[in-house]
Amino acid sequence: MLKAKVIAPVSADPVVEAAVDPLKRRGKDLRTKLGLSVEVADRRTLAEIDREARAGGVDLLIIATPWSETKEATVGMFEGLARHPGRPPVIYLDTFDQSSSPYFGVLPYVDAYVKKQLHRDLSDYDNDYVGGYILPDFCARQYGLEVGDWHFGSPVPVEYRDRVHVGWNIGAWGEIAKRLFYPWKALDVTHRKRLDVVCRLSCGDTENYYQVHRKAALEALAPLRDSGLDVVVEGYKRVPLRQFHAELRESRIGFSPFGWGEVTDRDYHCVSGRTLLVKPSMEHLVTKPDIYVAGETYVPVKWDMSDAVERCRHYLDRPAEIERITKNALAMYLAYFEHDGFLTTIRELLDAVM
User: Fold this and answer.
1) Pick the residue with more confidence: 294 or 236?
2) Considering the entire predicted model, what is its pTM?
3) CATH classification of 173-338 is 3.40.50.2000, yes or no?
4) Which of 76, 111, 143, 319 measures 20 to 30 Å from 180, CA to CA?
5) Closest to 291 measured CA to CA, from 270, 311, 261
6) Residues whose CB is less than 8 angstroms from the CB of residue 32 and which lie 6 or more positions away in sequence, other chains included
7) pLDDT at residue 177 is higher than 80
8) What are phi and psi of 289, to 5 degrees?
9) What's the CA angle centered on 133, arms 152 and 109, to 5 degrees?
10) What are phi and psi of 231, to 5 degrees?
């Protein structure tokens, strides 16, 4: 039995908690099917993570670090750990929402780098994106966004690209995935679609790329409000979570712009509720569970969302197409669990580092 230790700031960051969840929740299957025993150590600072990593007694380390630490400090910790006598193989678990990362500099000092979404072409990371990330770069060019000295990117050196792996995204988190298996999942939910389009967002006054992009989505969809359709296009009114989920489940179309990263929990809620997912194109990404096959499991729109209203109207006039695409999306999401996509990923990682 191999012994692995996950060291991560689980209690400090719900995003980290969601990323670590499958490793905890599937503990029995990891032991019985892969011969891997997993222990989770909740450590909030780099100093605590470093001490825990040097404690020994395990065959594999899986380490996630706090977003608040600088890339220099993070890389320095892994560089020092690499020189530690008897250090076992190390997997860096990148839990950040963005498809970019300022932490690719750890690659020389780890055996694998696991990220929940990656560019299909790793050479994209050599681009000099504004803010180091493709989304603020687009917002700067399209909307005049100024990001100042904020930078969330780094290149992936050619000689270490074989260490970079796609892991699992928020769609594998138990709190999201459980909706796939609710009793109503097996029912024909299409007769309960009382809304045409839902896009309920959380917008504020801060002018960062997240807010600029989401405000642009609200503006792009604004014509739907006066179209005679039953729509919810709202960015400033908070509602109970139960209402948020009900609106998505009871709508024919769910429009899902990007958040801090391209993949959002809303995407998977749409698929679970047989709601047609419409969102800016994801063609640049690979991720797991993958629900992003253009025209087959979701409907892509341009990043400036200039075609958003036309795409929504097109599919509202074609209910058979909505039925086809939502069935495909649900089947694709379910297949990740039916074919044990998470265990497959862990098995591939073990083969790569052990």
Assistant:
1) 294
2) 0.95
3) yes
4) 319
5) 270
6) none
7) yes
8) -60, 135
9) 50
10) -130, 155
Residue 261, C-beta contacts closer than 8 angstroms, at least 6 positions apart: 96, 97, 98, 99, 117
Could you read off the pLDDT of 87-111 as tens digits, one per residue? 999 999 999 999 999 999 999 999 9
Distance CA 277, CA 254 (A): 5
Burial of 10 (0-12, 13-18, 19+ CB in 10 A): buried
Quick check: do 2-171+340-353 and 173-338 share a fold?
A: yes
SS3 (DSSP) at 317: coil
Q: How far is CA 347 from the centre of its chain?
A: 21
Tell me if 91 sits within 8 A of 62, measured CB to CB.
yes
**Taking a C-beta distance cutoff of 8 angstroms, is the pair 212, 143 a contact?**
yes
Q: Where are the domains of the chain?
A: 2-171+340-353, 173-338
**Cβ–Cβ under 8 Å, residues 201 and 218:** yes
One-letter amino acid at 73 equals: A
Contact 6, 62 (CB under 8 A): yes
The sheet carrying 164-166 orders its strands as: 36-42, 2-8, 60-63, 90-94, 112-115, 164-166
Query: Which two structure tokens, joined as six digits, stand for 184?
Result: 């109503």
Return the C-alpha torsion angle 44, 48, 49, 53, nearest 10: -150
| pLDDT value, residue 180 | 82
